[in-house]
Write a structure and sequence with these properties.
The structure holds two protein chains of two kinds.
Chain A: E1 2-4, H1 5-8, H2 18-28, E2 31-36, E3 43-55, E4 63-68, E5 75-79, E6 89-98, E7 104-105, E8 108-110, E9 113-115, E10 117-119, H3 145-148, H4 157-161, E11 167-171, H5 182-193, E12 206-210, E13 216-218, E14 224-233, H6 242-250, H7 258-270, E15 274-278, E16 286-291, E17 297-299, E18 305-307, E19 313-317, E20 320-324, E21 342-349, H8 351-361, H9 366-373, H10 380-395, E22 398-401, E23 404-407, E24 415-419, H11 420-427, H12 433-443, E25 446-450, E26 453-457, H13 468-479, H14 500-514, E27 518-519, E28 525-526, H15 528-531, E29 555-556, H16 561-573, E30 579-591, E31 595-608, E32 610-612, E33 621-622, H17 625-639, E34 645-649, E35 656-666, E36 669-677, H18 679-685, E37 690-696, H19 697-702, E38 719-728, H20 733-743, E39 748-757, E40 766-775, H21 784-802, E41 805-806
Parallel strand pairs in A: 12-22, 13-16, 27-30
Antiparallel strand pairs in A: 1-11, 2-11, 3-4, 3-6, 4-5, 6-7, 6-10, 8-9, 14-21, 14-22, 14-23, 15-21, 16-19, 17-18, 19-20, 24-26, 25-26, 28-29, 30-31, 31-37, 32-33, 34-35, 35-36, 36-37, 38-40, 38-41, 39-40
Chain B: H1 3-20, H2 24-35, H3 40-46, H4 55-92, H5 111-125, E1 129-130, E2 136-138, H6 139-142, E3 167-169, H7 174-183, E4 191-200, E5 212-222, H8 227-242, E6 248-255, E7 258-267, E8 282-291, H9 293-298, E9 307-313, H10 315-323, H11 330-333, H12 336-339
Parallel strand pairs in B: 1-4
Antiparallel strand pairs in B: 2-3, 4-5, 5-9, 6-7, 7-8, 8-9
Helix pairs in contact in B: 1-2, 1-3, 1-4, 2-4
The chains are: A alpha+beta, B alpha+beta.
Chain lengths: ~800, ~350
Amino acid sequence: MKVSVNWLREYLPIALPANELAEKISRTAVEVEDQYRPQGDMKKVVIAKVLSVTPHPDSDHLVITQLDAGEDEPIQVVTGAPNVAEGQTVVLAKHGSTIGDGKKIRRGKLRGEPSNGMLSALQELGLDNQVAPKDLEEGIWVFNDADAADLTPGEDAFAVLGFDDDILELGITPNRADMLSMNGTAYEVGAILDENVQLPDYTLTESDEATADLITAEAPADLAKKYAVRVVKDVHVQDSPLWLQRRLWNMGIRPISNVVDVTNLMLLTYGQPLHAFDYDQLPAKQLKVRTAKEGENIKTLDGEDRTAKAGDIVIDSNGEALMFAGVMGGASTEVTDQTTNVVLEAAVFEPKAIRHAARDQNLHSESAQRFERGVDVSATFTALDHAAALIAELGQGTVTKGRVVAQDFDYEAPVVKISTDEINNVLGTQIETAEIAKIFDRLGFGYEELDGKFSVVIPSRRWDISIPADLIEEVARLYGYDNLPATLPVGATTPGQLTEKQKLIRDSRHTLEGLGLNQAISYVLTTPEKATQFQLDTDNEPVEVNYPMSQDRRVTRGSLLTSLLDDVAYNLARKQADVALYEQGRVFASNGLHDLPNEIEHLAGVVTGNVRERDWDQAAQPADFFYLKGLVEQLLTDYGFTDAITYVPNQDRPEMHPGQTADIYVGDTLVGFIGQIHPTTAKMYKINKTFAFELNLSTILTLPRLKSTYEPVSKFPSISRDLAILVDRDVHSADLVETIKAHGGQDLHDVKVFDVYTGENVADDKKSIAYALTFVNREHTLVDDDINAAIERITNALEKQFSAEIR
Amino acid sequence: MSLQTELQTLRDQAMTQIDGAQTLNELNDVRVKVLGKKGSLTEILRGMKDLSADERPVVGAMANDVRNELTDQIANKQTELETATLNEQLKSEQIDVTLPGQPAIQGQPHVLQQIIESLEDQFMGMGYQIVEGPEVEQDKYNFEMMNLPKDHPARDMQDTFYISNELLMRTQTSPVQARTLEQHDFSKGPLKMISPGRVYRRDTDDATHSHQFHQVEGLVVDKHITMGDLKGTLLAVAHQLFGEDHDIRLRPSYFPFTEPSVEVDVSWNPVMPDTKPEDIDWIEVLGAGMVHPNVLEKAGVDSSVYGGFAFGLGPDRFAMLKYGVEDIRNFYLNDVRFLTQFDQKG
């Protein structure tokens, strides 16, 4: 909401410069998002009277004007303004002036005729086209005769136009809807500056004709807690006087006509939206608040043909829905320059009903915004009376006798109890009772106080206050947040430590970073197609949002790999072919529309391109299955599972390379998989050869794990033996190792593959595989006989089980 | 020729040979030839038996001197030759030490993770627990228990991805607080928690908006928690995130779940005792307030006995401010050139 400081000064004295006032408001009430003076850097723009208009000898669209700008000699200006005429009072940007957007005006010649300035439209002086009363195409700004009578040629135009005002743009929080009005803002500033507020005044004169004879109104209390109308007859609908127009344009509202402008002025003054109907266009001399039937048509003031939804709040006359009540007026009963009799409506509409209609129609008007957030119910009928009086004054009309009130209630001021102790206990302060009392005085809240216990009477203009905490906030902000102490909570101490799960997740992240993977954080929402890829549990259904913003972000992911592959693709598209990433996050499994989905903690990683760049002393190292497997083995070993970790070939993961993929088991539990992305999948993602793993951390957390244990290092030397064997190609090393370990005896400490060979000198269906076996005994030095016996057992077993040939 | 003369000659010749030795082998040959069992010195000393009793001690002493002198000389020469050899070797082993080392392969935590983790560590040090909760939430916990009933105007502040009437993508991590508050046994002490995590808003992604971002929210509930405690805690957070020289200020604001509510600005520049207020550049970093009694009551906590404070900050926004990241989408695109920049440790 924009606030004119000049207008504010009509309520209370303000000695502070605007920037200091803005700072105080920001620190005490609401944020001042912007502060500016419409005049800005503009200068030397004056009021001028058009003495004569003569044709330009050399142009059919330019004319030559002589202007009285308060100087000894008339000023000649050539203008193309279509609306310029002798006798007008206009705005002249003189030679040497600066106008909007920093544009400088210099004397010059237009088609040979000297021109010593420029006649201006308000838009050219920086007024937004949405706010300026006349369209730019209509030409220069011309003061109407009544206003012109008060103006002197040569007078500073910025003061006349109100551009010397200071405007504060307030960011009103939902609780401070009271500040969506000048009255409310004035009360707030009064509290801040400790000044009394003088509210606007008016004198209402009524004719003898009873309003009730002209119109009837009906409003159910569940839609409108207050509803009243007045009638102003014989109104001349015309432009508003300058004082009203400039007030509106400074507040960011476009002046339209005296009737509409007055309703807007009341909206700004009281925060009370009003509506004016053309009395003579009403289908019947009755108004009724009701909810719409589905499909009713209303053409609104913005020219849109709209279809009401069932439940939208509307104003009805004779069965016809005229407008969306409190949201936007209807075209059929709009006040135009033909209007002579006006019905003014003031109401307190039910916020939920307004919200409903505003949402349905996507019409978040100034009016709807205020009704939704609430209005000062004590000001509703005052605003109505004030509006009627002012319209009668500005349009030379007469206000008929009395309001027609369809709904009303008496405001009962809530009394909120609070004590000095409660306030100080919450704030951590030692504010005296007298100081608190003084703050309530400044806020204009009535109260009774006894021994530091307050009963505070909340005025209707502060409907945001209903509980003690609300009053504590009032005291705190006016006392000043800067004056609060800065302490730390005291009381029983509590342990701050990671849970087992948090520890595991954090350690896993650190391990993978240490192993060279960068942490990625990707989007959780993805496409339905991707959501079902790479799933560990293919029965999982994704969770779908009901109104997605884009097709790419529709459902929750079922694996982290889909995100990581998107990341790889993003990098590759930017010529970053070497990528090593991991992500830790959740995948989701829907449990329907009523129950929360399962959220499963996962950990996944990808490597593609080179894991090591070509360097001056070594060749590049491309990523491959075993590089990544090494990382995963390290990670899994660190968990210290009680059960063995096994890698079982799986040819059936559709997105993975059938010959280069293994499921990972701990004991009998599937915890994840590792492998190369299937070339077809890689193509779909537009990525190169990529290796990936995905683990289910939630499952891993449930598995038994060993604490670190200690056993003394053997004092006796170890002995190594190499064992090279020839087996069928499809024999798995893991099975060979298992057999070796099973028959190696107690002293077999370690088995390492150190060579795998196929090719020359090995039959096509065979492979040669070599193991280094390490033996050690804690009690004595091993001798060859011990080892030979073990090797004998091992080779026998290998020959028997795998038809292995020992080389 | 007397033995003395022979010794003298031997000495002189040997000294020349020692000096002239080019290698350790040559030197050794000299040593063997002169001082060895069959060496020339031994040879000469054999002649001692023919000497008179008077001469023998004199020649003997002289022979010892020569032996010692030659032994020392050989040792010196040996050291000299060894040093030369070593120097030769060292010279041949010279490398260009300005060439880069073999790059260690090291990954980075994501910048948002770094911020979250540093806050976690700080708050754990202050006795807070870290609590996570579901990212797909019930309306009840995300809104209603946070004092945001259906049709509350403040719901407009948060555009929500709904899944059904009851379920939604959480718009804030506050529902974790509601869940924890509901479960907390106050007989076991105060509740002090932070809840970091991903949150979602129905927003069109652009440079400053993301449909997914992060929050770290904190909550302390006990019998005697004051707004001064909130201010002190936030000051500690500001010091952690920005450095000890930075100050904070509170401004009134509105959140449905706190009353009073404040926005918290942190000074962008250090604030010294002589810094003038008008020279401080304030940036908005946090929202905070005293827990609204409705929030406590809805979680079954007696608001006449217990009270507390809550605060929330966005690591994304904070990282944008701290590092000057111009586009929030950068955090989620995972361009390796972006990720690897935030590598400062310690």
